[in-house]
Amino acid sequence: MSKTNPSSPVTVVFLPSGRRGVFSRGISILDAARQLDEPIESICGGRLACGKCQVQIETGAFARLGVRSGPEHVSPITDQERAWLENQPSSPTLLRLACNARILDDVVVFVPEHARIHQQVVRKDATVRVIQVAPTIRQVYVELEPPAMAERQSDWERLRRALVEQWGLNPAELEPAPALLRKLQDELRAGEWKVTVILWRENRVMDLRAGYQEGIWGLAVDVGSTTIAAYLCDLQTGDLLASDATMNPQITYGEDLMSRISYATGNADGLKKLHGSVLKAFRRLASSVARQAGILTVDIHEAVVVGNTTMINLFLGIPPKYLGEAPFALARREAQDWPAAELNLRLHPAANLHIPPAVAGHVGADHVAALLAAEPYEQPGVTLLVDVGTNAEIALWDGRQLYSASSPTGPAFEGAQISHGMRAAPGAIERVRIDRETGAVRYKIIGEERWSDAWTPDQPPALSPTGICGSGVIEAIAEMFLAGVLLADGRFNPRIEHPRIHWQGKRARFTLATEEEVASGHPIVITQEDVRAVQLAKAALYAGCKTLMHEAGVEKLDRVLLAGAFGSYIDPFHALVLGLVPDAPLEEVQAVGNAAGDGARIALLNRERRRAAQQLARSVRYVETAANDFFQDAFIAAIAIPHQHDSFPHIARWLPEPVVRPRGRARRSRRRTK
Predict the structure, then answer these.
(1) Can you tell me the distance from the alpha carbon of 354 to that of 341, in angstroms, rounded to the nearest whole number?
(2) Percentage of the chain surpassing pLDDT 90?
(3) What residues contact 465, with CB distance under 8 A and at least 6 apart?
(4) Taking the complete model, does pTM exceed 0.70, yes or no?
(5) Under a CB-based contact definition with an 8 Å cutoff, are residues 487 and 660 in contact?
């Protein structure tokens, strides 16, 4: 029931940015968005003339946000608004124009990508690499004898005999896919008994084409918690033909894995919504890459999908309940092959969906794929592989044994839980530098090649800053520490004078972009709460790395490989300054790109590497961090920036003295957060 008191305040939360505010009842969604600097497209300025400001009103109880939302929490749709929305294909009953919908009660509003002024820059490009092509699918050409009146052989028997005689296949193993039988007889006759056959694993006949026709295609998909990336490959040549990516629409229901597990298990239709939203994103990406390559989605005969265990469960429609409670049991750990039609993926009717194996409860197929691509076990010395994200997966190779663990870093590295945080999108601050002598601040934003100190009235930037993304947050806090603005325990330094430090009582904030530099007129700042959020996230990541080193009995690293969309954009120097990962030679801290996506391509293109993935998953020694005493101790010790001076000899000459250990308040803060 809506609030009837016109003076009672209402809360609005915008997703996926997480911006929220309290407003007077009756304000339009667009006006609320403008006050919160939520960038919703509105070419006509809110006059109901362009229909660009389409938003979705979310339904249900959002415990993590403290809000119950529904379409009745905004004003009824008008005829003029309905005229704009009636032809929209998605969620017509929940889609509204932000300029016309007025807020009557607490509401959660999802802003689709097409309605955002600056759409997200997706950083999950495929790495250029040599992959030996030996897929599970291949094409063969056969010529058949046409049937005679006295024969009793079926057309399938005739095709099977030709495959055995001309290609040496085992007749006892050959089976037709159900979809094949629907077109078998027409294609044989259209090709005058000369046809191209598509085989899966040498035993299942998937497809048939009249005459001689080349062309088989496969799709590799990395379903990340934040971003879904798709790569279309030629299964004959191994060429990457097209790629595309989008934000994971499940963010609407929770930034992190536990939030989504909670939503799936705590709402009657929770799993259905999460499952349906990711499948819809898959179909949209498949259609996009197929269109880029000039083929149809029904021409795609196989897909390999990787993701963490929760993402895979939600993708397959498997309830994730038991992944959210100890001992974090999986429904299945081995590799899986599903008929793509089972999930209505809209690929070829006989297409196969392959899911690589998982290691354990929270170390899934994406981690195994990253191991396939980065191959830390082929590196000399002690090598650490870190896939940085909302839930970080970590692997350590000590020269003999591979160890793996997951660490719950949370969404701070994605720009969430940060006062002016945002995802990597045009206008987001992604690089920060603070002069050690003068204290001058300069930064670089996505979409503008020049640094801010090169902007002039005659040559202003193409975009103005709108927030700060994960890589910018890391650099900003590391630079503030190096400049003496922050003490090692994360507190603002009360003894330093800096024109960009503003105190409010005992709390301070640091201005990165001034109000004159920002179009909204509101400065972009780093607050004490922002620093604390990053400290907790980086401490969890560091502690996970140290726990694996402890299990392996190694004291130092020879090499660190940073993977993932975020990991690949972290500056290695700032990562070490902040204490994100244990110390290593600076030149040996390397970005390896979207290793999970590359591993998915490897599994798609090479059947032997699929088998290697199975062996990898079995051979990894898994370390559970959730109840690990060493992890807890390492976490508390790692909250400072960085926590021990002598632990970082490769960057020690840049670190200010003295390094202050975290006070009890920081320790207590973590205990309350857990």
Answers:
(1) 13
(2) 51
(3) 427, 428, 429, 443, 445, 512, 513, 517, 518, 524
(4) yes
(5) yes
d(CA 469, CA 494): 27
pLDDT over 80 (residue 127): no
Domain 252-362: give its CATH superfamily.
Domain of unknown function (DUF4445) (3.30.420.480)
Burial class (CB within 10 angstroms; exposed 0-12, middle 13-18, buried 19+) of 21 = middle
* CA neighbor of 199 nearest in space, from 390, 11, 19, 352: 352
Q: What would the CATH number be for the domain defined by 137-210?
A: 3.10.20.880
d(CA 292, CA 76): 40
Helix (H, G, I), strand (E, B), or coil: what is residue 141? strand
Contact 448, 463 (CB under 8 A): yes
- Compute the Cα dihedral for 397, 406, 412, 648 and give only its sign: negative
- Looking at domain 367-409+534-641, which of 3.30.420, 1.25.40, 3.40.1090, 3.40.30 is its CATH number? 3.30.420
Residues ≥6 apart with Cβ < 8 Å to 438:
none
Give the pLDDT of residue 114. Answer: 62
Q: For the residues 589-601, what does the mean pLDDT come to?
A: 90
Q: Which residues pair with 431 in a beta bridge?
A: 444
